[in-house]
Design goal:
By secondary structure, the chain is an all-beta fold. The chain is 0% helix and 61% strand. The strands form two sheets. Strands 2, 4, 5, 6, 9, 10 and 11 form a seven-stranded mixed sheet that branches. Strand 5 and strand 6 form a beta hairpin. The model has no long low-confidence stretch (mean pLDDT 96).
Length: 121
């Protein structure tokens, strides 16, 4: 009932930027929180940044000075992650997450399939 589609990943050199996008759609009454997480090879998935329906933002320490999360409802619910000054340590699969309530009142917590970000010289 909830579809999440990420895009914008790719291969870049250190110091370059990428902008990830995540479109959230479905039988949704309300989205409480959307966010980006990442998982590097051999590591656990970790939080990158989240944004609430009230536009409150939260960042992991490594993301605070370089990444910006934002959200738009026009024309579809889309959450963005602007990543600047990328380093090889940012190489990972980036996943979008959304949590909220469906029109049938049930809560949901859904993940996208992920988009690969590779930073290499």
């Amino acid at each position: 009932q909830v579809t999440i589609v990420e895009s914008g990943g790719g291969s870049v050199r250190p110091g370059e930027s990428l902008r990830l996008s995540c479109v959230v759609s479905g039988n949704i009454a309300m989205i409480h929180t959307e966010g980006w997480y990442r998982q590097a090879p051999g590591k656990q998935r970790e939080l990158v940044a989240t944004i609430t329906g009230a536009m409150t933002k939260n960042y992991a320490d490594f993301a605070k000075d370089r990444f910006t999360i934002s959200r738009s409802n026009n024309p579809a619910d889309t959450v963005y992650l602007q990543m600047n000054n990328l380093t090889p340590e940012d190489t990972a699969v980036y996943y979008c997450n959304a949590g909220g309530r469906l029109r049938g009142m049930a809560e949901f917590d859904s993940w996208g399939q992920g988009t690969q970000v590779t930073v290499s010289s």
